[in-house]
Amino acid sequence: MYGNDFAPPEDGPGGGLLGEVEAAEAALREAAARARRGGPAPDEDLAAYFADVIDADQKIEPRDWMPEAYRKTLIRQIAQHAHSEIIGMQPEGNWISRAPSLKRKAILLAKVQDEAGHGLYLYAAAETLGVSRDELVELLIDGRQKYSSIFNYPTLTWADVGAIGWLVDGAAIVNQVPLCRCSYGPYARAMIRVCKEESFHQRQGYEILHTLAHGTPEQKAMAQDAVDRWWYPSLAMFGPPDGDSTHSAQSMAWKIKRFSNDELRQRFVDMCVQQAEILGLTIPDPDLRWNEQRQAHDYSQPDYDELMQVIKGNGPCNRQRMEHRRRAHADGAWVREAAAAYAAKRNSREKVAA
Ligand code: FAQ
């Protein structure tokens, strides 16, 4: 059995998406070694130096000069990504108390906890751009920053936890593996760690669905129903089609994004087809077929009007997700205050001791 992060067995170890993560990690180390050999010359134009670093596939680091629009784009994308990880804890958190066994409960607890960790890596990466985590959380809570559309759909059955792992984490990995090569160092490094952890998540979802699909007819029907409901929202996660994507061209020129939304969506579809066969489940698209000429699958597009409605706040669970986040933030105020008071006390003790 394998999942999105695995190459099919014939591709051998080190292949597939995890192989790409390892290659990106090696490239990061090489870029860091090269970068140490010199910064801009004293009389060199900073914008020209920035362009050279991007051209040379090296990394922009927090203290480097960068265009204001590059900084703003990164803050927008990284913050949206961090918020998605945090809000993304809710749909699965819904099943922690109802997981079918102690083992499943322990695995799901660990997974949901991992998502909190991913949020923290990402908020920390965003902070290197000169914005505080508190500000970003306020922007989310006030509805001025977005989070992924996918987390506005409900988890109706246990099989939804499997479908989230297989399809949502699967789509997240396909999107995030190229981000391991993002031109901004802190984001690229965070993505390497996130992708490695995300590969476990994808496998646990795939394994849940595999178990259900090979269980009783009722269990198989439940797995199929979950895939039917999560397929198109997962395709929509990759964003609007290229023609309607406002940021893609500039983000690709800056090497923040390495592939367009449609390129990644296609890659995801091509991967899922074979995996669905192994699961014994059907992808709910009657027009899905191999196109010999394109060497890729033709498939039906998700409903992009629905995506826009969900992004605007009109999805099935938007209100519930935001209410829960606001309540959790308010309930956690005493923890933040206590942590700040403790840090202040420790700082003053250290000063006295010094
Ligand atoms: N949902 O011009 P583009 C996960 C917005 S993590 C909401 O194409 P861009 C882990 C976009 O922001 C999932 N909004 O934008 C997990 C822009 O809005 P603006 C999150 C969307 O940035 C699993 C406008 O539409 N992953 O799942 C969406 O170049 C299980 C125009 O779009 C990331 O955030 C959407 N689906 O490309 C956790 C990955 N799509 O600001 C728990 C990093 C587009 O102009 C459980 N982000 N928009 O008003 C990216 O790769 C990119 O930001 C894209 C969008 C590809 C999402």
Automatic annotation (TrEMBL):
It comes from Micromonospora terminaliae. GO terms for cellular component: cytosol. Signal peptide: none annotated. Keywords: Oxidoreductase. Pfam families: PaaA_PaaC. This is 1,2-phenylacetyl-CoA epoxidase subunit A. Gene3D superfamilies: 1.20.1260.10. One of its GO terms (molecular function) is phenylacetyl-CoA 1,2-epoxidase activity. One of its GO terms (biological process) is phenylacetate catabolic process. Its EC number is 1.14.13.149. It comes from the Bacteria.
